[in-house]
Amino acid sequence: MKTLEELKALRKKSYEKMYMIGVANGVRVQVGYGTCGIAAGAKPVYDTFVEEIKALNLDNVEVTKVGCMGECAFEPIVEILESNGSKTIYCLVTDRIASEIVEEHILKGNRIDKYLLSKIKR
Amino acid sequence: MLDRMHILICGGTECKESNSLELRDKFNSEINKLALGDDVKTILTGCFGLCALGPHVVVYPGETLYSGVKVEDVPQIVEQHIKNGKPVERLLYKGEFNRNKFRNRSELTFFARQKRIALRNCGVIDPLNINEYIARQGYEALGKVLTKMTPEEVIDEMKKSGLRGRGGGGFPTGLKWEFARKSVSEQKFVICNADEGDPGAFMDRAVLEGDPHSVLEAMAICGYAIGADTGYIYIRAEYPVAVARLEEAIQQAKDLGVLGDNLFGSDFSFNIELRLGAGAFVCGEETALIASIEGERGMPRKKPPFPAVKGLFGKPTNVNNVETFANIPVIFLKGADWFKSIGTEKSSGTKVFALGGKIANTGLLEIPMGTTLREVIYEIGGGIPNKREFKAVQTGGPSGGCITKESLDTPIDFDNLIGLGSMMGSGGMIIMDEDNCMVDVARFYLEFTVDESCGKCTPCREGTKRMLDILNRICAGQGTLEDLDVLESLGNMIKDSSLCGLGQTAPNPVLSTLKHFRDEYLAHVVDKVCPAGVCSHLTNYVITDACIGCTKCARNCPVGAIEGTVKGKHTIDPSICVKCGACKTACPVNAISTDPEDWKVA
Fold first, then answer.
1. Residues B331, B352: contact at Cβ < 8 Å?
2. Cβ distance of A65 and B385 shorter than 8 Å
3. Closest partner residue to B362 among A17, A66, A72, by Cβ?
């Protein structure tokens, strides 16, 4: 990295990729993968997403591991970001729920209310 | 009254559904009717985060919050509040709301009340992908510092920001950098203290796991400011995920050329290495940490000389904590004035707290300094579960003290917490309710410090051990009134005469509980009862007439000490009961009592 301009160009490119600028129906699946998430079972959840997305051949969907968002008591947490700007947080996700999210939310566009963080939290 | 008032009307999606646009028009027409248009302005704002009770209207000044406002309520608000200055009681927000309606992150109270600087990227970016960090303006601060600022300007900016060390002491970071800069030497070092050891604190782990590059970037900025070309991250081996991610992050940064030689075309070079600690609490103390990196046994050294003069391998060294570093890139991106504008006058910025204990939302939260403890515990933390009563909050871990109900409205900052006899520490916050025995809590923390005392100086090594002996005696029902005086004088002696921060603060949990909860100590010593029902030698479990005969207690009792028929009152056989408290937790109607009044009768 030699200049600030070089960094800014890389930033623009990375930003567009991360926020799915110009991707039609882009979906970013963020799986909480801090120690709290891993301990609560984030691995099977992450693996399920990766496998199912691959099996369905969905190239508009990106599955990503992220750190802890602070709600450790409700891990594994999965946040779904869509290129239309909508954000959904699912909590206490299992591999079975992950399949359900792929099926209902990602494929059909129906949010599954009963797994929402805001529903489950007291 | 009419002195530039603003009426904010929620224009979030959910409130729009409930006619906030019509509301605004009605407000405008009412205001015009009374010819107040020059002094009152209506504004459509974003979501307030309490969507279930929308639409909301806020009137400034005074920040009066009305909820569930209907178009026909508007004339009354305008007439009574705007014109005559009396808020309309019946429409005021009542504080109870249905969280089920909340949709996304910014609408959940837990997130909405936070201000995330150190945790800005945690849970947002892929920590193993440097490009995602860069997408969020990563390494721009470093680029800016290296190409546009002198080291002196960097230090001035840090001093202006008012950032204070987040690891415990709260020493101004800019000053620390200045001392290290002024020490003349060929070789200097930057150390990141990632030896997070307070029981119940895990914010540093979250930063390192969720956003490792922010720490690397800040260390390079620090290296430039003080004139160091090498950094060490001292991290405990108990954080394997954080260690792996840091290693990967350092490699990626080197590959991209944001760590290494001649960064951003300058003649500044910086490299970072990891050093793993074996998890000794004392190694969070900077001189002990330095000794450990040097390969010595982790024991503190005499100060002065401070590390800024004679630190790692005898060279000037600057040690900062993970969370401190994580704030730094943002300060250079947004400016010291911006950072200074957040928080309180003497404690600028935000602080991350790890909420634990008897609290609904266990987890991490980052709040501006100056937020009150009540807001943190009840509004963001969700309050105490199971309808129990709040008793105290312990901040600062084993070095801090207990803060009681009376002080809940104190704004949190470094100096206020010290004023309350506690401290900020690294930001662990353990909430205790009526079921916690304060003597037992003090004993828990002291057990920890006795274990972790390195043994170098006598007051800490021997003194804390003696204090623990006394506490054990009290909990076993063999304490005397004299013991309380001995605890106090011994505690103060240890504070005054210990070599390092560990010993100087170790008696704090005991001293502060002695001060605030002396009645509990007296109950243990004089009446030989533990009011909370924790110390098993000093309590009895009985079932009161509130029992509904649900049989849950009997099913949960591990020793079969509870008898009773369905729908009939149950009884506990004290000769079998091991006082584990399982029944108390299981009881849905709070019919299991450890109150001496109840068990003495029984």
1. no
2. no
3. A72
Confidence at residue B63, expressed as pLDDT on a 0 to 100 scale: 64
Q: Structure pTM?
A: 0.80
**How do the domains of chain B map onto residue ranges?**
5-101, 130-337, 350-433, 438-527, 540-601
Classify strands B57-60 and B64-66 as parallel, antiparallel or unpaired: antiparallel
ipTM: 0.83
CATH architecture of the domain B5-101 equals 3-Layer(aba) Sandwich (3.40)
| Residue pLDDT, tens place only, B229-257 | 999 999 999 999 899 999 999 999 999 99
The CA distances from residue B416 to A3, B421, B427, in Å, are 44, 9, 14
Residue A2 to residue B132, Cβ atoms within 8 A: no
> Which helix (H) or strand (E) is B403 found in, with range?
strand B402-404
Q: Tokens 């070089």 correspond to what residue?
A: A6
| Residue B368 dihedral angles phi and psi, to the nearest 5° | -65, 145
Nearest in space to B491 (alpha carbons), one of B504, B480, B502, B481? B504
DSSP line for B259-310: SBSSGGGSS--BEEEEEEE---GGGGSHHHHHHHHTTS-S----SSSPTTTS
Q: Which residues of A touch B (CB under 8 A)?
A: 1-4, 7-8, 10-11, 13-15, 17-19, 30, 32-36, 38, 64-74, 77, 79, 86-89, 116-119, 121-122
The structure tokens listed for B404 are 């009681």
Task: Provide the pairing of β-strand A87-90 with A78-82.
Answer: antiparallel
Domain boundaries B438-527, corresponding CATH code = 1.20.1440.230
CB distance A67–B264 less than 8 Å?
Answer: no
The DSSP code for B412 is: P
Cβ-defined contact of A68 to B122 (cutoff 8 Å): yes
Two structure tokens written together for A108: 């059909």
Q: Which two tokens stand for residue B494?
A: 């240890």
Of 3.40.710.10, 3.10.20.600, 3.40.50.300, 3.90.228.20, the CATH number of B350-433 is 3.10.20.600
The CA dihedral of B555, B558, B563, B569, to the nearest 10 degrees, is -60
Q: Spell out the per-residue pLDDT of chain A, length 122, in tens.
A: 889 999 999 999 999 888 888 888 899 999 999 999 999 999 999 999 999 999 999 989 999 999 988 888 889 999 999 888 888 999 999 999 999 999 999 999 999 988 988 877 64
Integer Cα distance of B570 and B301 in angstroms = 60
Q: Does the beta-carbon distance from A71 to B100 stay under 8 Å? A: no
Q: Are B198 and B113 in contact (CB under 8 A)?
A: no
Amino acid occupying residue B157? E
Nearest to A52 by CA among A109, A108, A101: A101
Tell me, what's the pLDDT at B407? 92
Q: Is B435 exposed, middle or buried (0-12, 13-18, 19+ CB in 10 A)?
A: middle
Residue B80 is predicted with a pLDDT of 86
Burial of B44 (C-beta count, 10 Å sphere; 0-12/13-18/19+): middle
Q: How far is CA B54 from CA A117, B5, B41, B57, in A?
A: 21, 21, 20, 9
Closest CA to A45 of A71, A79, A19: A79
Task: Give yes or no for residue B142 having a pLDDT over 60.
Answer: yes
Q: Which CATH superfamily is domain A23-120 in?
A: Glutaredoxin (3.40.30.10)
Is residue B64 within 8 Å of B81, Cβ to Cβ? Answer: yes
Chain B: residue whose CA lies nearest to A3: B264
Q: Which amino acid is at A26?
A: G
Q: Residue B47 pLDDT more than 80?
A: no
Q: Give the C-alpha separation, B306 to B289, whole Å.
A: 13
Identify the CATH class of B130-337. alpha beta
